[in-house]
From TrEMBL:
<dbReference type="InterPro" id="IPR036388">
    <property type="entry name" value="WH-like_DNA-bd_sf"/>
</dbReference>
<dbReference type="Pfam" id="PF03466">
    <property type="entry name" value="LysR_substrate"/>
</dbReference>
<protein>
    <submittedName>
        <fullName>LysR family transcriptional regulator</fullName>
    </submittedName>
</protein>
<keyword id="KW-0472">Membrane</keyword>
<keyword id="KW-0238">DNA-binding</keyword>
<feature type="transmembrane region" description="Helical">
    <location>
        <begin position="209"/>
        <end position="232"/>
    </location>
</feature>
<keyword id="KW-0804">Transcription</keyword>
<dbReference type="InterPro" id="IPR000847">
    <property type="entry name" value="LysR_HTH_N"/>
</dbReference>
<dbReference type="InterPro" id="IPR050176">
    <property type="entry name" value="LTTR"/>
</dbReference>
<keyword id="KW-1133">Transmembrane helix</keyword>
<feature type="domain" description="HTH lysR-type">
    <location>
        <begin position="6"/>
        <end position="63"/>
    </location>
</feature>
<dbReference type="GO" id="GO:0003700">
    <property type="term" value="F:DNA-binding transcription factor activity"/>
</dbReference>
<dbReference type="InterPro" id="IPR036390">
    <property type="entry name" value="WH_DNA-bd_sf"/>
</dbReference>
<dbReference type="Pfam" id="PF00126">
    <property type="entry name" value="HTH_1"/>
</dbReference>
<dbReference type="InterPro" id="IPR005119">
    <property type="entry name" value="LysR_subst-bd"/>
</dbReference>
<dbReference type="GO" id="GO:0003677">
    <property type="term" value="F:DNA binding"/>
</dbReference>
<comment type="similarity">
    <text>Belongs to the LysR transcriptional regulatory family.</text>
</comment>
Length: 285
């Protein structure tokens, strides 16, 4: 069977020509060139198998069959617009940025919880550093950002505070007399900066031996025995140990998880409330 699906842009061009009586005016109305509109109409006529318009040097008018097709064309475009409106009404988009130091192994279950709250919500999630996400949030590229506390910011709602430690692989030993080998996130990273400041203040020499593009890469380096890293316990595989007390490293403070959002009500707000509660539970757990 021959595929006789119609090009909606061509149908729209035909309707505009019929209504305006001019290829030039129709082209302006649909934001195209006159040549492009003429080509679309020719292809539509070829697909239908008959002429829609009669052209003369002075004017453009509908053919007999074109006049009969015009109402069907308008109905087709109206149905298309109704379908788009229905989807837009049910699929609200919510763009969320989550810091790599916050989005842990629980992320799939957290997304599932949001989806259960509203299956019609179109969820877009970006994982990056807190600094990058806050810049995107300020540029209104994100509706919401869930991040660590960032220097110079006083906004954001506290979701939870999370314990951090100096984690290493089981059995890993620091070689006496050598700088402390650190696995860190790439700049900019607030946790990386904090770890360096605490070690410097304590007079403990250190050196970066691994720089990862994400927490998963850093945890892999730790478990491979490259060194220690400042991480939240829930980010580490079972068996990782907090080597801080044994090595005499400075205690890491509890670091807050903050919610920055412009969403104040409606379905998206309900989904964010569910997400925040799930994060709070994951951090406490």
């Amino acid at each position: 069977m021959t595929d006789r699906a119609l090009d909606l842009d061509a149908v729209k061009a035909f309707v505009r020509i019929a209504e305006l009586g001019s290829f030039t005016l129709a082209a302006e109305a649909v934001g195209a060139t006159q040549a492009a509109v003429s080509l679309k109409l020719k292809r539509l006529e070829d697909r239908l198998g008959f002429r829609l318009l009669e052209r003369t040097p002075r004017y453009v008018e509908l053919s007999a069959r074109g006049a009969g097709f015009l109402e069907h064309a308008r109905e087709l475009l109206a149905a298309h617009d109704r379908a788009l409106s229905a989807v837009a009404a049910t699929r609200q988009r919510l763009a969320i940025g989550i810091s790599d130091h916050v989005a842990g192994p629980e992320l799939p279950s957290l997304i599932a919880r949001m989806n259960a709250q509203d299956p019609q919500l179109l969820i877009e999630i970006r994982i990056a550093s807190s600094a990058d996400l806050l810049q995107s949030y300020d540029r209104r590229e994100l509706d919401t950002a869930i991040v660590r506390l960032h220097a110079g910011r006083s906004d954001g709602k506290l979701i939870a505070k999370e314990k951090f430690g100096w984690f290493a692989a089981p059995g890993w030993q620091h070689r006496a007399g050598e700088p402390l080998p650190l696995a860190t996130m790439a700049q900019p990273c607030g946790v990386r900066a904090l770890a360096g400041e605490l070690l410097d203040a304590a007079g403990i020499p250190w050196t970066e031996v691994f720089v990862g593009g994400g927490v998963m890469a850093v945890t892999a380096a730790v478990m491979a025995g490259l060194g220690v890293a400042a991480l939240a316990p829930r980010m580490l595989p079972f068996g990782a140990v907090d080597a801080g007390p044994r090595l005499g490293l400075p205690a890491l403070p509890q670091l807050p998880v903050l919610l920055h959002t412009r969403v104040r009500d409606g379905r998206a707000h309900d989904a964010l409330t569910a997400l925040a509660a799930a994060f709070r539970s994951a951090v406490r757990g």
